[in-house]
Amino acid sequence: QVRLVESGGNLVQSGESLRLSCAASGFTISSHLAFWYRQAPGKSRERVASINEITDRTNYAESVKGRFTISRDKDKNSVYLQMNSLKPEDTAVYYCYVPDFALWGQGTQVTVSS
């Protein structure tokens, strides 16, 4: 059974950093395009970052460019989102997504206080 489990969310102060993890099971995540999305209260889900399975090319939403970094660890079968210089507007539930399986994780809450 394929599954994604996110972790690493927390309550932090503005300017601090967090690293989110997305652990895959039942498949090799490094062989698939993977995304991080987020959804803030009352807003639609927003694409944050992606990493290409062949080229390792990464893409970011304009709102997080220069602050967030997506990466993966083949040995740990995981994808990560390093978030620096966090702002209150980054507050959201963050989800990992693999479109080849239409697979979402359960999400992890990030709250940034001012």
Would you kindly provide a brief summary of this structure?
0% of the residues lie in helices and 51% in strands. It has 114 residues and is mostly beta strands.
Structural overview:
- The chain has no helices and 11 strands.
- The termini are far apart.
- It is globular.
- It is an all-beta fold and 114 residues long.
- Strands 2, 4, 5, 6, 9, 10 and 11 form a 7-stranded mixed sheet that branches. It has a 4-stranded antiparallel sheet with strand order 1-3-8-7, with no helix packed on it.
- The mean pLDDT is 97.
Structural features:
114 residues, mainly beta, seven-stranded mixed β-sheet, four-stranded antiparallel β-sheet, 11 strands, 0% helix, 51% strand, globular
Main β-sheet: number of strands, strand sense, barrel status?
A: 7 strands, mixed
Work out the strand percent.
over 45%
Taken in chain order, the helices and strands follow as: EEEEEEEEEEE
Query: How far do the termini sit from each other?
Result: 41 Å
Shape: globular
The parts where pLDDT drops under 50 for at least 5 residues are none
- Calculate Rg over CA atoms: 13 Å
- State the helicity in percent bands: under 10%
Number of beta strands: 11
Number of alpha- plus pi-helical segments: 0
